[in-house]
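RECORD TYPE: inverse folding
INPUT: C-alpha cells
STRUCTURE:
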C-alpha cells in the first residue's frame, strides 16, 4: 500500500531530510529539480494543514505547474488541467503507463505521475512544458 511521507509539520523537507526519506530515488528528484530550476521554475515547500503533510508547489513565475509529494519509494507529481487541454495532452505522445488520470476535481482533471526512475522524467518534462504553455 502506498504510504505518504513528510507528515510532521515541525520537520522541514531540507535536502538532508529528502535524501533520508527518498533513498536511491533522491538522485531522480535532484535531477528533476536541477533541470527545472535551470529553466526558471521554483520549488516551494509548505506544510498544508488540510492534507496534514508537506507539499511542494512547483511554479513558473506565478503559475503553478504541478504539486509534488513524497511517498515511500517514490514521489508524486500532480498536474491539473481543464477539459480543453486533453487534446493537447494526447498529442504529447506520453506513455499511458506514465500517469494516472484521476476523477475530475471540480472543473480540473488531475494527472498524477509516480516517479521512482530517471527514465520517467522524459514524459514528466513533456507535461511540464505543455503546462507552462497552456492557457
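DESIGNED SEQUENCE:
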Amino acid at each position: 500500500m502506498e504510504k505518504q511521507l513528510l507528515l510532521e509539520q515541525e520537520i522541514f523537507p531540507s535536502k538532508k531530510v529528502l535524501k533520508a526519506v527518498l533513498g536511491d530515488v533522491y538522485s531522480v528528484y535532484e535531477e528533476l529539480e536541477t533541470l527545472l530550476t535551470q529553466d526558471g521554475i521554483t520549488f516551494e515547500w509548505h506544510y498544508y494543514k488540510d492534507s496534514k503533510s508537506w507539499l511542494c508547489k512547483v511554479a513558473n513565475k506565478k503559475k503553478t505547474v504541478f504539486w509534488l509529494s513524497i511517498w515511500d519509494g517514490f514521489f508524486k507529481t500532480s498536474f491539473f488541467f481543464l477539459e480543453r487541454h486533453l487534446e493537447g495532452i494526447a498529442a504529447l505522445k506520453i506513455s499511458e503507463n506514465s500517469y494516472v488520470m484521476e476523477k475530475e476535481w471540480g472543473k480540473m482533471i488531475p494527472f498524477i505521475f509516480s516517479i521512482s526512475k530517471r527514465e520517467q522524467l522524459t514524459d514528466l518534462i513533456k507535461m511540464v512544458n505543455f503546462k507552462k504553455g497552456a492557457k
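NOTES: The radius of gyration is 14 Å.
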